[in-house]
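ingest -> validate -> predict -> emit
validate: passed (alphabet ok, no gaps, 129 aa)
predict: started
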Amino acid sequence: MGGFAFTIDSSHQNFLPDGVTRTTLTPDGLRVLLHHEPDALPDITAEQIKDSSKVDGSKKTLVCIQALWFCMRCITRLAQSLPVSLLELNTFGHALCTLEIYIFWWEKALDIEEPTLITDKTLHPIFAY
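emit:
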């Protein structure tokens, strides 16, 4: 899930509906917060993001090796004028896209379950809006 969430402690009046004490910020809510209080968002370091990632480099490397192996096999068959089925061509396209995604998203965190909490009491009027 991840993202940002606004939380209210029990000592203050709860203005959220149905007794909810935590709400997830939508992209529009994040824009409103950035417009009115840009310093309210916590600083998130690269170490915190890497710490929350569930996939290490060895698993990503294994997937890339498998995709490369399949692509090289298809290219070799085409170079030798051997037949390649439509299913193999389709899988070849998917394998190329997989490689591209892994290259660009190598450092992307995966399965972050807990959101970053915003607990600043001065933001209550903004979130009540």
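The mean pLDDT is 76.
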